[in-house]
Design a protein that fits this description.
The chain is of the alpha/beta class. Helices cover 42% and strands 14% of the residues. It contains 12 helices and 13 strands. The longest helix is centred in the last third of the chain and has 25 residues. The chain starts with 13 loop residues before the first helix and ends with a helix.
């Protein structure tokens, strides 16, 4: 039997492994509270569900253009004008099968095997895993308090020198997972200018836009037309299982992305596109959901330090608390396993986000119901006593 390829030897996405174990325990009757994954407890907006029901009723669902329906691409372009005051040609919008497909397309279209791509550490593990599987060199740049928990031109310059070769790409998330960092307009422009002057591709992960509680939420499109912007209906729009996202591309790169998308994905699912278009007009409903996350955020900001965890970074956006648990353990993986097995609370070990220092950290998602967040904090507090 032929062995597996070298590229298959990526690290597991531990958050998904924790979720799988939590699901098994819940199905076995245990009272599990999951704070492991960034999945809103709220359903998709009512108008999105109704649009999907109507589409299922007539049943005429099939392939669309590889980059999505004209109607949804136009609606997304309109969204940038109304929310950010930025004009976007709908032809630059590419609808994707979740933001994950967007990252695949971006990495394939922009980079060749051996290229160097910088990401923040701690950061979303799928970046590292996908880049590695594609034969790209991942340059992890420490993003701590001294850099405002984000990337800076200076930190990128230092990372390139340490790598001994120039960077080909930079990927920045704002708001960031797991730190919650929001990179403001001035800092974002400094990064995009740095990349433009050096011919470095800049990818802006904006999937947590709409979920900013402090700081200045800025789309990269407000400071440059050359960024590849990736967004999703999963987080703010509460549509994780619909697997629908989008990108905004530089005009000159649209056709290259389209060619790859045609072969990899054929098209995004039409049913999800129909629901997503309706969801774009549901901000009043979705902002009520956001208020529930804000209440959870306030709870964790108070309770985690009381329990004995220090919050490692500002919880300015997204719906995560990245907590230092080194007072109790030097092995957050084992800590997360025991917490699930002994008190039925699931959280994600920091090893997912930081291979170097992650053993000291746990990420708690506060996207769940408020009563569950209270109960989880109470369980952990009693457990650690």
């Amino acid at each position: 039997m032929k062995p597996l390829s070298a590229r298959s030897a990526v690290e597991p996405f531990h958050a998904m492994d924790v979720l799988a174990e939590a699901t098994r325990r819940r199905e076995a009757g245990y009272p599990v509270i999951s704070m492991a994954v960034g999945q809103p407890s709220h359903p998709a907006p009512k108008a999105a569900l109704e649009a999907a029901r109507t589409a299922l009723g007539h049943g005429r669902l099939g392939y669309t253009d590889a980059l999505g329906t004209v109607s949804l691409r136009t609606a997304i372009a309109r969204h940038y004008l109304t929310r950010y005051g930025v004009e976007v040609d709908p032809q630059r919008v590419a609808v994707t099968t979740g933001s994950s497909a967007g990252f695949n397309l971006a990495f394939l279209a922009l980079f060749d095997p051996g290229d160097c791509v910088a990401i923040a550490r701690p950061g979303y593990p799928a970046y590292r895993n996908i880049l590695g599987a594609l034969g790209l060199n991942v340059v992890e740049v420490e993003a701590g308090a001294e850099t405002g928990f984000t990337l800076t031109p200076e930190s990128l310059e230092a990372a390139a020198l340490k790598a001994g070769r120039p960077l080909n790409g930079v990927l920045l998330a704002s708001p960031a997972n797991p730190t919650g960092t929001v990179t403001g307009k001035t800092a974002l422009k400094a990064l995009t200018d740095y990349c433009a002057m050096r011919g470095i591709a800049f990818i802006s992960d904006e999937i947590y836009h709409g979920l900013t509680f402090a700081g200045e939420e800025t789309t990269a499109l407000s400071v440059t037309d050359e960024a590849v912007v990736i967004n999703s209906f999963s987080k703010y729009y509460c549509m994780t299982g619909w697997r629908i996202g989008w990108m905004v591309l530089p005009q000159a790169k649209v056709r290259a992305f389209e060619r790859i998308a045609q072969s990899l994905y054929i098209s995004p699912p039409e049913l999800s596109q129909i629901a997503a278009e309706a969801a774009l007009d549901c901000e009043e409903e979705l902002d009520r959901y956001k208020a529930s996350y804000a209440a959870n955020r306030d709870l964790l900001m108070k309770r985690l330090p009381q329990i004995g965890f220090s919050i490692a970074s500002p919880m300015d956006g997204a719906f995560y608390a990245y907590a230092d648990v080194s007072r109790f353990t030097n092995d957050s993986m084992d800590f997360a396993r025991r917490m699930l097995a002994e008190i039925d609370v699931a959280a994600t070990p920091g090893l997912d986000f930081d291979p170097g220092e992650g053993h000291r950290y746990i990420r708690f998602s506060y996207a769940g119901a408020h009563a569950d967040m209270i109960e989880a904090m109470d369980r952990i507090g009693r457990w650690l006593e």
